TrEMBL record:
Protein's recorded name: Uncharacterized protein
Keyword Transmembrane helix part of the UniProt annotation: yes
Keywords: Membrane, Transmembrane, Transmembrane helix
Region (Disordered): 1-43
Ranges that cross the membrane: 63-84, 90-113
Extent of Basic and acidic residues compositional bias: 12-29
Biased composition (Basic residues): 1-11
Protein backbone atom coordinates (compact mmCIF):
# COMPACT_ATOMS: atom_id res chain seq x y z
CA UNK A 1 0.00 0.00 0.00
CA UNK A 2 2.81 2.29 0.70
CA UNK A 3 4.03 1.87 -2.82
CA UNK A 4 0.72 3.07 -4.22
CA UNK A 5 0.71 6.15 -2.03
CA UNK A 6 4.31 6.92 -3.05
CA UNK A 7 3.36 6.65 -6.68
CA UNK A 8 0.49 9.04 -6.16
CA UNK A 9 2.64 11.59 -4.30
CA UNK A 10 5.46 11.52 -6.73
CA UNK A 11 3.79 13.39 -9.66
CA UNK A 12 2.50 16.00 -7.24
CA UNK A 13 5.97 16.63 -5.90
CA UNK A 14 7.38 16.97 -9.39
CA UNK A 15 4.66 19.48 -10.22
CA UNK A 16 5.45 21.50 -7.12
CA UNK A 17 9.13 21.59 -7.93
CA UNK A 18 8.46 22.77 -11.51
CA UNK A 19 6.00 25.41 -10.31
CA UNK A 20 8.43 26.75 -7.73
CA UNK A 21 11.18 27.04 -10.31
CA UNK A 22 9.04 29.17 -12.65
CA UNK A 23 7.38 31.23 -9.96
CA UNK A 24 10.51 32.39 -8.23
CA UNK A 25 11.72 35.73 -9.52
CA UNK A 26 14.87 37.59 -8.80
CA UNK A 27 14.05 41.07 -7.43
CA UNK A 28 17.46 42.39 -8.44
CA UNK A 29 17.75 43.91 -11.93
CA UNK A 30 19.87 42.00 -14.37
CA UNK A 31 23.22 43.64 -15.13
CA UNK A 32 23.50 45.19 -18.59
CA UNK A 33 26.12 43.95 -20.92
CA UNK A 34 29.01 46.36 -21.37
CA UNK A 35 29.77 47.55 -24.90
CA UNK A 36 32.93 46.37 -26.62
CA UNK A 37 36.05 48.47 -26.22
CA UNK A 38 35.73 49.86 -29.77
CA UNK A 39 32.36 51.44 -28.93
CA UNK A 40 33.30 52.99 -25.61
CA UNK A 41 33.96 56.68 -25.29
CA UNK A 42 37.53 57.91 -24.83
CA UNK A 43 36.65 59.22 -21.34
CA UNK A 44 35.65 55.74 -20.28
CA UNK A 45 31.90 56.42 -20.12
CA UNK A 46 29.42 53.97 -21.50
CA UNK A 47 28.35 54.63 -25.05
CA UNK A 48 24.71 55.69 -25.33
CA UNK A 49 22.55 56.65 -28.26
CA UNK A 50 22.87 60.36 -27.56
CA UNK A 51 26.66 60.09 -27.50
CA UNK A 52 26.75 58.44 -30.90
CA UNK A 53 24.33 60.99 -32.39
CA UNK A 54 26.30 63.89 -30.95
CA UNK A 55 29.38 62.64 -32.75
CA UNK A 56 28.12 63.79 -36.16
CA UNK A 57 25.91 60.86 -37.18
CA UNK A 58 22.77 62.98 -36.86
CA UNK A 59 24.31 65.72 -39.01
CA UNK A 60 25.31 63.18 -41.64
CA UNK A 61 21.79 61.74 -41.70
CA UNK A 62 20.32 65.21 -42.12
CA UNK A 63 22.72 66.02 -44.97
CA UNK A 64 21.90 62.73 -46.71
CA UNK A 65 18.18 63.41 -46.37
CA UNK A 66 18.62 66.91 -47.79
CA UNK A 67 20.64 65.54 -50.71
CA UNK A 68 17.97 62.95 -51.34
CA UNK A 69 15.30 65.65 -51.31
CA UNK A 70 17.37 67.79 -53.68
CA UNK A 71 17.79 64.82 -56.01
CA UNK A 72 14.04 64.24 -55.96
CA UNK A 73 13.38 67.90 -56.81
CA UNK A 74 15.85 67.78 -59.71
CA UNK A 75 14.17 64.64 -61.00
CA UNK A 76 10.74 66.30 -60.82
CA UNK A 77 12.05 69.37 -62.66
CA UNK A 78 13.51 67.18 -65.39
CA UNK A 79 10.20 65.35 -65.76
CA UNK A 80 8.38 68.69 -65.95
CA UNK A 81 10.84 69.86 -68.60
CA UNK A 82 10.21 66.67 -70.57
CA UNK A 83 6.46 67.22 -70.41
CA UNK A 84 6.84 70.83 -71.59
CA UNK A 85 9.10 69.66 -74.41
CA UNK A 86 6.53 67.08 -75.50
CA UNK A 87 3.75 69.67 -75.39
CA UNK A 88 5.81 72.07 -77.52
CA UNK A 89 6.51 69.32 -80.04
CA UNK A 90 2.81 68.52 -80.15
CA UNK A 91 2.03 72.21 -80.71
CA UNK A 92 4.60 72.32 -83.50
CA UNK A 93 3.07 69.28 -85.17
CA UNK A 94 -0.36 70.87 -84.87
CA UNK A 95 0.92 74.06 -86.48
CA UNK A 96 2.47 72.06 -89.33
CA UNK A 97 -0.80 70.24 -89.82
CA UNK A 98 -2.67 73.55 -89.95
CA UNK A 99 -0.16 74.86 -92.51
CA UNK A 100 -0.66 71.73 -94.60
CA UNK A 101 -4.43 72.16 -94.43
CA UNK A 102 -4.10 75.81 -95.44
CA UNK A 103 -1.98 74.86 -98.43
CA UNK A 104 -4.50 72.20 -99.37
CA UNK A 105 -7.29 74.76 -99.14
CA UNK A 106 -5.33 77.15 -101.35
CA UNK A 107 -4.78 74.36 -103.88
CA UNK A 108 -8.50 73.59 -103.87
CA UNK A 109 -9.24 77.28 -104.38
CA UNK A 110 -6.95 77.39 -107.40
CA UNK A 111 -8.59 74.27 -108.77
CA UNK A 112 -12.00 75.88 -108.31
CA UNK A 113 -10.79 78.92 -110.22
CA UNK A 114 -9.62 76.68 -113.04
CA UNK A 115 -13.00 74.94 -113.03
CA UNK A 116 -14.58 78.40 -113.09
CA UNK A 117 -12.68 79.26 -116.26
CA UNK A 118 -13.73 75.99 -117.87
CA UNK A 119 -17.32 76.20 -116.66
CA UNK A 120 -18.42 78.77 -119.16
CA UNK A 121 -17.56 76.44 -121.99
CA UNK A 122 -17.24 72.75 -121.38
CA UNK A 123 -19.00 72.33 -118.03
CA UNK A 124 -22.11 74.11 -119.29
CA UNK A 125 -22.28 71.79 -122.27
CA UNK A 126 -21.63 68.65 -120.20
CA UNK A 127 -24.25 69.52 -117.60
CA UNK A 128 -26.75 70.55 -120.25
CA UNK A 129 -26.39 67.13 -121.84
CA UNK A 130 -26.79 65.55 -118.42
CA UNK A 131 -30.07 67.38 -117.87
CA UNK A 132 -28.87 69.53 -114.98
CA UNK A 133 -29.44 73.23 -114.64
CA UNK A 134 -26.39 74.72 -116.25
CA UNK A 135 -26.98 78.30 -115.10
CA UNK A 136 -26.41 77.33 -111.44
CA UNK A 137 -23.00 75.89 -112.30
CA UNK A 138 -22.15 78.86 -114.47
CA UNK A 139 -23.07 81.23 -111.64
CA UNK A 140 -20.83 79.27 -109.28
CA UNK A 141 -18.02 79.36 -111.85
CA UNK A 142 -18.46 83.11 -112.31
CA UNK A 143 -18.37 83.58 -108.55
CA UNK A 144 -15.16 81.55 -108.28
CA UNK A 145 -13.54 83.46 -111.10
CA UNK A 146 -14.60 86.76 -109.51
CA UNK A 147 -13.10 85.68 -106.18
CA UNK A 148 -9.88 84.69 -107.95
CA UNK A 149 -9.62 88.12 -109.61
CA UNK A 150 -10.41 89.82 -106.28
CA UNK A 151 -7.69 87.77 -104.59
CA UNK A 152 -5.18 88.74 -107.27
CA UNK A 153 -6.17 92.40 -106.87
CA UNK A 154 -5.67 92.28 -103.09
CA UNK A 155 -2.31 90.56 -103.49
CA UNK A 156 -1.12 93.07 -106.07
CA UNK A 157 -2.16 95.97 -103.80
CA UNK A 158 -0.35 94.35 -100.88
CA UNK A 159 2.78 93.92 -102.96
CA UNK A 160 2.56 97.54 -104.06
CA UNK A 161 2.31 98.67 -100.42
CA UNK A 162 5.23 96.53 -99.25
CA UNK A 163 7.38 97.41 -102.25
CA UNK A 164 7.85 93.90 -103.55
CA UNK A 165 7.28 93.03 -107.16
CA UNK A 166 5.85 89.89 -108.65
CA UNK A 167 8.73 89.61 -111.17
Amino acid sequence: MKKQSEKKKRPREILRRVETRHVTTDPRPKPRSTPPASESCPSGEKLTLTHSLQGGVLVKVRVLLLLLLLLLLVKLLLMLLLVVKLLLMLLLLLMLLMLLLLMLLLLMLLLLVDVGHLAEGRVRVLLAHAGARAHVVVDLATLCRGFYHHLLLVLSQDMALTGTSSK
